[in-house]
From TrEMBL:
<dbReference type="InterPro" id="IPR036567">
    <property type="entry name" value="RHF-like"/>
</dbReference>
<protein>
    <recommendedName>
        <fullName>HPF/RaiA family ribosome-associated protein</fullName>
    </recommendedName>
</protein>
Length: 102
């Protein structure tokens, strides 16, 4: 298996006020969550921040990963995008580990 298949490019979709720094942090978090995973063929991350003070969790981070031929999805919503990314990292790592074990 070549390195490209093990570490595919992460495709991003963003909406709202998402900085380049936050996007980079999300990329690091997803790579960390998938660090032990094999056969990752695609990764798409969506980061979204809604500018509405009435929402309790306006920041959303979502990842859809093709892993072992199966689609794995994790997402988290939080008051701030960095919090959502942290929760996403934890949830994605759990899902990827569970799939590896099965």
């Amino acid at each position: 298996m070549n390195a490209t298949r093990e570490r595919p490019e992460i495709r991003f979709l963003t909406s709202g006020d998402v900085s380049a720094h936050e996007r980079s942090a999300a990329e690091r978090a997803v790579r960390e969550a998938l660090s032990g995973a094999r056969d990752v063929t695609s990764v798409q991350v969506t980061l979204s921040v809604v500018n509405d003070p009435s929402l309790p969790r306006p920041a959303l981070a979502q990842a859809v990963v093709e892993l072992h031929g199966r689609r794995v999805r994790a997402q988290a919503a939080a008051p701030r995008i960095d919090q959502a990314v942290g929760m996403l990292r934890e949830r994605l790592a759990i899902r990827a580990t569970s799939l590896q074990a099965s």
